[in-house]
Amino acid sequence: AFGVSAVNPCHTNLCCAPPATAAMSMVDCGGHFAKTCGECPDGNGAVWCNGDCKWFSLTGSEDNGFCMALGGDIGPAGPWYLSEFFISGVIMLIFACFYKQQVVNKIGTIPRIFNIAGRERGLFACFSNSDTCLYTTFCMPVVAGKNYHAAEVCGFWPGCILTFLGTYSPFYCITVCIRALLAGGVQERTGHKQDFITNCCLSAFCMPCEVGRESLEVDAELGAEITCCCQVEIQNRVVTEVQNAAGRVMCY
Asked: Dihedrals φ, ψ of 57, to 5°?
């Protein structure tokens, strides 16, 4: 009557209270509605992802992540995430097959007798070894699988697959606990046992460095030197034990 047009206070794709006929095709974001859970945040992060939806972030960030339906819809970013996950999985599998043939099948396992534990490495010890650093940066599941195999706490393939699926998926918290248990088994064989809580913290916040440190300790027990790409040299058992004893005493 006064020449003022009605303005919809809702966003283009977000509605505060959709008509009953439209509600059937929309999801409840918790305070507002959208066509899909992926559209709920509208640039506002986790605080706008509620109701029928759940926020998902690999890093725990409330700004960088995905809003997905409780039933499993991960919105418009879903196809991209799944394709990247699949491609990286295929590449990792191909390399793991080559690594197992060239490295794991040759190094064997840590001896249960006539085995002197070498010196304990620091958390960032892998930075002093360029080959180990590269392996853990780009192929951490493969290195973890090798460590589990050598310590006989888990087979190479189960350890490798479990680490990959758990680390690069929404199940990271579960992976941290499993990793802490397996790491404890490895530490018993290398002679550097740590408590479960410490292993959980290291796995949660420093897993690549922890796997790299573990790899150096396992390799020392095996007397193996693993270099890029998948080259391995194994020295005499007696020489290995003498070096481990000297390194433990003199801390070199």
From this structure: -145, 130
Tell me how crowded residue 243 is: count the other CB atoms within 10 A of its CB: 17
Tokens at 111, concatenated: 């001896």
- The CA distance from 227 to 129, in Å, is 10
Residues in the chain: 252
The alpha carbon torsion through 92, 94, 95, 96 (nearest 10 deg) reads 80
Q: Which helix (H) or strand (E) holds 34?
A: strand 33-34
Cα–Cα distance, 43 to 54 (Å, whole number): 15
Which pLDDT tens digit goes with each residue over 97-156?
Answer: 999 999 999 998 888 776 666 667 788 888 999 999 999 999 999 999 999 999 999 999
User: 68 in helix, strand or coil?
Assistant: strand
* Helical (H) or strand (E) element with 242: helix 237-250
